[in-house]
Amino acid sequence: MTQAKRPALRRNFLKSAATGAVATGALAAPMISTAQTISLRFQSTWPAKDIFHEYANDFAKKVNEMAGNRVKIEVLPAGAVVAPFQLLEGVAKGTLDGGHGVVAYHYGKNSALALWGSGPGFGMDPNMLLSWHYYGGGKELLEEIYKSINIDVVSFLYGPMPTQPFGWFKKPIARAEDMKGVKFRTVGLAVDMYTDMGAAVNPLPGGEIVPALDRGLIDGAEFNNATSDRVLGFPDVVKNCMLQSFHQSTEQFEILFNRTKYNTLPAEVKSIIDYAVQAASADMSWKAIDRNSKDYIELKRAGVNFYKTPDAILRAQLTSWDKIMTQKSTENPMFKKVLDSQKAFAERAGGWQNDFLVDFKLAHNHYFGRR
Fold first, then answer.
1. 256 - beta bridge partners?
2. CATH code, domain with 108
3. What residues make up the domain containing 66?
4. Are 102 and 252 in contact (CB under 8 A)?
5. Residue 216, SS3?
6. pLDDT digit string (tens) for 51-108?
7. Does 359 reside within a domain?
8. In what order do the strands lie in the sheet with 167-169?
9. Which of 154, 246, 311, 360 could disulfide-link to 317, CB 3.0 to 4.6 Å?
10. Is residue 346 part of a domain?
11. DSSP letters for 94-153
């Protein structure tokens, strides 16, 4: 081989290698085409001003940005297309491509659905209940329930919520007996618990609670957290809030997709959605800590009186819950199936967490004193 031919052969080899590398890279990490945008219309179950609707938009923003021009999720507020408590049917029927809400809102279709959020969860916190859902069999049980009631959706649970207050009241609740005759708003299986404690319960959507309190249609209510409660206007009509409760201490959000629409999505878009759910879950948790703590201070400045719910009332909640578990398990085999799965996971995971986690109150009180 002559010296003149060697550089030419080398150039040809390098050119072929570079072409092969590009082709291999394309196979390993396919680019998402921007030729056609997939538009998805979502609705939340929250008023536009609520931080919950903001969380829904946060999820949509993550998907839209990761997918580039390939996907655009638009999120409408509660009632824009369907009533808040009709979101599940609206998504299943294709009236909406997807939605953002909570599983407890579907309680009327199967009582077992309330177990994703209502009640003490056998001592699990909300993040632990999400662990049960994804790694302890909960996801499969939820799919089984939806299939049994002919609801064809793809469900993603995310966003562990902080423990919700016992409620806002015109007068503080000092004893469990004080709940007797109180006209009260809650949702999900908490309806049964407050009813058992003597309250007359009205499961109103979030946007209707404060107007009902203002008009005297209800005497007390719970919604969720300091930020939502402040924005919805609770401190404008009620000045007493009881903190800590077992009625909804393990709740999380649900992102819904119409299954037919979801199945048409390319595999890479489905992966983007999956990872966006996980990213949104973490981001929501961090944002909630920041915003709830700030709004807690603002509520105090607005003259709201906060009281720790007495332990006697918390024990009364657990007693009511025991009765409800027995009754619902007898009436609904699926309720018992979900309950048994949660209990087995909670015994193992809760035992580990209680033994390993330090009591952070000790450090907080050391530096800032007892309140």
1. 99, 155
2. 3.40.190.170
3. 38-160+251-290
4. yes
5. coil
6. 999 999 999 999 999 999 899 999 999 999 999 899 999 999 999 999 999 998 898 9
7. no
8. 200-201, 183-185, 220-221, 167-169, 240-243, 305-308
9. 246
10. no
11. TSSSEEEE-GGGGGGG-GGGGGTTSB-GGG--HHHHHHHHHHSSHHHHHHHHHHHTT--E
Cα 210 to its chain centre, rounded Å, is 22
What does the chain come to in residues?
A: 371
Domain membership of residue 122 (yes or no) is yes
Please name the amino acid found at residue 116.
Answer: W
pLDDT tens figures, 246-294: 999 999 999 999 999 999 999 999 999 999 999 999 999 999 999 999 9
| Sign of the dihedral through C-alpha 168, 171, 173, 179 | negative
Beta strands in 176-333 (DSSP E): 183-185, 200-201, 220-221, 240-243, 253-258, 305-308
Residue 242 φ then ψ, to 5° = -95, 120
Residues 159 and 280 sit within 8 Å (Cβ to Cβ): yes
Instruction: Name the β-bridge partners of 155.
Output: 256
Measured CA to CA in angstroms, residue 267 lies from 22, 264, 270, 272 at distances of 22, 9, 5, 9
